[in-house]
Design brief:
By secondary structure, this protein is an alpha+beta fold. It is built from six helices and 20 strands. The chain starts with a helix and ends in a 9-residue tail after the last strand.
Length: 362
C-alpha cells in the first residue's frame, strides 16, 4: 500500500469514526426501551427557554412553538432556597441543589432534545399542571443520569405506565453504592433500619401497629432531634421529633405514631430497655403503594443528608401484605450498600417474619 492509499484509508477511518460518534448522540432505542415503555409514550422535540432547578425546566416545543413547563418524571432533585431579592441562598438550600441544577443546565443548554410523556391523559400532568416528562438528550436519559450521579432521588408520583420502575431503582442504587453526592453521608452516623412493619392486617387507617425500628451501630451517641423522614410519595421531609432524643451506641429505638403505653399494649413482648419514639409525623403505610408493591423510606439528619434508606416490595414474601409479617434485617455486616441486580437494592438484607419490635437477632 503506497502513501496515497494509506492517506485515503486514514481519511475513511476518520469518516467512519465521525459517523459512529454522531450515531451515539442520537437516543438509542435500546437505551430508551430499557427505562421506558415506548408504546405508552408520546413525544416532541424541544429546546430550553428557562431553567428553574434540577428537575424543572420551561421548554419551547418545536411542533407548535408553545412554551411548556416540564417536571422531570420519576425523580426529585434537592430544593434551592432563595433570598428576599430572588437570589439563590446557598446556606439554606438543600445539599447538592445547586449542583443538580448546574448538571441539568449543562446537559440541556443550547441543545435540542426529546421529551417523552404518557399517552394516557391521567398521567400527563401533576397538580400544578406541569407536564411529567422524561428527557432524552445526546443518547442518554437525563432523569436517569441525575439518579445515577446521586443528584436526585426517585419520586414515583404515581404508577405512570411509561416507567420501568425496576430499572430506575437500579440507577439510584448505583449512586448509593458509590456513595456520591446525595449519598456521600450515607450511614455516616451508623444509624441503620433494622425492622419495618408496613402493613398490619386491617384497613388502610393508622392502627398504631405500624413501626420503623432503628439501631445505633456507631461508637457515638446520636441526638434524633429534628431528624427527618421522607416517604416515597412526597417531595417533602417531615420531622420525627422536635425534642432531644438521644440514641446511644448499641441502643435500639422503635418509631411509631401512638403513645408508648398504647404501643406496649399492642406488643407485650416489646423489651422494657428498648427506646420508643412517638413520632410527631403521623406516618402510616397504605396498602396501595405506588408504583404497585414498592415502598421507599429516606431517613435524614437535620441538614437533610441521607443517613439511611430502605426500598422494599410488598410481594417479596408471602404474607407481608396484610399478612401480619414485618421486614427484619438479617445482614448486619453489609449496611453500606445493597445489590443493584434486583427490583430493590435491599432485598438480600431482609426477611419477613412475625414482628419483634425492640428485639434483634444477629
Amino acid at each position: 500500500m503506497n502513501f496515497a492509499q494509506k492517506k485515503i484509508s486514514f481519511v475513511l477511518l476518520l469518516i467512519l469514526l465521525s459517523i459512529s460518534t454522531k450515531c451515539e448522540i442520537i437516543p438509542k432505542e435500546s437505551t430508551l426501551s430499557k427505562y421506558l415503555n415506548l408504546d405508552s409514550c408520546l413525544h416532541f422535540t424541544a429546546t430550553v427557554s428557562e431553567f428553574k432547578d434540577g428537575d424543572t425546566v420551561y421548554v419551547k416545543r418545536q411542533d407548535n412553538g408553545e412554551i411548556e413547563k416540564i417536571r422531570f418524571l420519576g425523580i426529585n432533585t434537592p430544593e434551592k432556597s432563595y433570598t428576599d431579592d430572588g437570589n439563590i441562598d446557598p446556606e439554606n438550600s438543600e445539599p447538592y441543589a445547586i449542583k443538580a441544577s448546574e448538571f441539568t443546565k449543562n446537559a440541556l443548554q443550547g441543545k435540542t432534545f426529546t421529551v417523552y410523556y404518557s399517552s394516557n391523559y391521567h398521567y400527563q400532568r401533576d397538580p400544578y399542571d406541569r407536564l411529567l416528562g422524561v428527557i432524552a438528550v445526546e443518547g442518554t436519559i437525563l432523569n436517569v443520569d441525575l439518579l445515577r450521579e446521586g443528584l436526585a432521588k426517585r419520586f414515583f408520583y404515581n404508577e405512570n405506565p411509561i416507567m420501568k420502575f425496576e430499572e430506575w431503582t437500579k440507577a439510584e442504587a448505583s449512586a448509593r453504592k458509590r456513595k456520591i453526592n446525595l449519598w456521600s453521608h450515607y450511614h455516616s452516623q451508623r444509624i441503620v433500619i433494622t425492622e419495618v412493619y408496613p402493613d398490619p392486617p386491617g384497613d388502610e387507617t393508622n392502627t398504631g401497629e405500624e413501626f420503623i425500628e432503628i439501631k445505633n451501630f456507631g461508637k457515638k451517641a446520636v441526638n434524633l432531634k429534628n431528624w427527618l423522614i421522607m416517604m416515597d410519595r412526597s417531595t417533602h421531609y417531615n420531622t420525627l421529633t422536635s425534642q432531644d432524643f438521644i440514641l446511644n451506641p448499641g441502643e435500639i429505638c422503635v418509631i411509631s405514631t401512638v403513645p408508648e403505653s398504647d404501643f406496649r399494649a399492642l406488643f407485650p413482648s416489646f423489651p422494657s430497655n428498648a427506646k420508643y419514639l412517638n413520632s410527631e409525623y403521623k406516618f402510616y403505610f397504605k396498602n396501595n403503594p405506588h408504583p404497585p408493591q414498592q415502598r421507599i423510606f429516606y431517613l435524614c439528619s437535620p441538614d437533610k443528608y441521607i443517613e439511611e434508606t430502605l426500598t422494599f416490595s410488598l410481594d417479596w414474601y408471602d404474607g407481608l401484605r396484610n399478612g401480619g409479617k414485618s421486614l427484619q434485617r438479617v445482614n448486619f455486616r453489609k449496611i453500606e450498600e445493597g445489590t443493584i441486580s434486583d427490583d430493590s437494592p435491599d432485598k438480600q438484607l431482609f426477611k419477613a417474619d412475625t414482628p419483634t419490635p425492640g428485639i434483634i437477632s444477629q
